[in-house]
Model the fold of this input.
Amino acid sequence: MIDWIKKNKIEAFILVLIILAALFLRLYRIDEYMTFLGDEGRDVRIVRDLITKGNLVFIGPQTSIGNMYLGPLYYYMMAPALLLSNLNPVGPAIMNALLGTLTVFLTYYLGKKWFSPAAGLIGALLFALSPVAIIYSHSSWNPNPMPFFALLSVWGIYEVWQKHSFRCLPWVGVSFAFALQMHYLGLILIPTLGIFWLLTLLNVKKDPKMVRAFWVKTIWAFVIFLLLMSPLVLFDLKHQGQNLNAFKTFFADRQTTINVNPARSDRYLPAIQSVTSELLLGRQMTYSTLTAFIIALVSIWAYLGKPKARIVDFLKSKKDPALSVVFTWIFFGILGLGVYKQHIYAHYFGFLFPAVYILVGYLISFLWKKGIIFKILSAIYLIFLIYFPLLNSPLRFEPNRQLSRTEAAVDLIIKESTGEPFNFALIAKQNYDESYRYFFENKKSKMFRGEDLVTEQLFIICEDGDTCAPEGHSQYQIAIFGIAKIDREWKLDHLRIYRLIHPKQ
Done:
């Protein structure tokens, strides 16, 4: 490494600056910027019980669409971080920040390895500055590590295809299992992995020794993949195939979920606009179509502009193999997002993050080599792609302070409960009470769920501001408390906290 730095001082200096920027943008006041709502509270409660009580986890969180359950691998990833942070939820958030920074470095490494140092540095810079990548890297949530594992799986299959490094096949099996358990949109990686697996088989079929080695490592990859996915199988065996049935319903209910005929979908342009806007333009839509058009135009030029650019070259691995992998990765990604009928959120295409940045890094470096006019255009385009992420960087805005506010609200309630048992409820349009319950339980408070014990006092946190009407609210924990009236109330930032008691007879 020292020798490389001595020979590549400028490249090393720029790379260090990019990595430091990625770390800073993801770790700066992370305890204030991180998201800590119901999903995050649920996760840390489960992982805390895994650490302190040894409660093994065989199933992950439920998906928002389709009522399917993910696998538990993310919970086991969280465990060391939560343990090292002494059960502070900021620990897993830091883990994601470090993993996100590592993904930025790997984007540089593969961009350089596949194309050029400039391509790697540009792709890593755009990844480091991306507001979406920053937001999903400084919070603990199962989809957040998806870019890391997607990159590992595609890199692995590239090594298998191009270098016949069959020892990478188990690596592909592991990384794909992790990617799939982060989010089921990882299924869209299957065509890319499958195509280059098949091309490898076609390339080595005339050599019996290589074919044997290929199949041995493929079987190992498949076995490892099944072992990592086995908790889901055990869950289904115990619950009458609940997850499998949810999958069947998801793919069968084509009116609301997916369009099985890609040629009839009208959602490709929205998918392309969403990917371009979220990943390259700091979430602004104004220039998303233009940006996507420029990327497509330069991609065609870069790939087909050379002599003898034919499909047969692709099949024989002779025509820009790295570019073939990136194009295939992005093509099936857009195809998969385009047939999905629901709203496309940014975390859905986490499996595409590295591909987009690697491609754009390559295309800008490609233009730079084409003469003075294109040098100027590529420089302008790079400045354009840096400007919007900086303009909309999350660090330019006030942090949400969800973690500290949640704990402060819990501390207030514990204090005002005067050591007596109490019930608790949350009124919120877009949240639920797991984050508060995590702190209530950690602080050994006398909080009881209404179905376990109806106490003499009910504390209600309202996240909807002054519009909240807690008396007679239909929320279950309020309804089960029975007839009650407001006894006291407090204000904490935008939170309204109420103490309700039963009226005296």
Q: What stands out?
A: The chain has two domains: 2-254+301-396, 402-501.
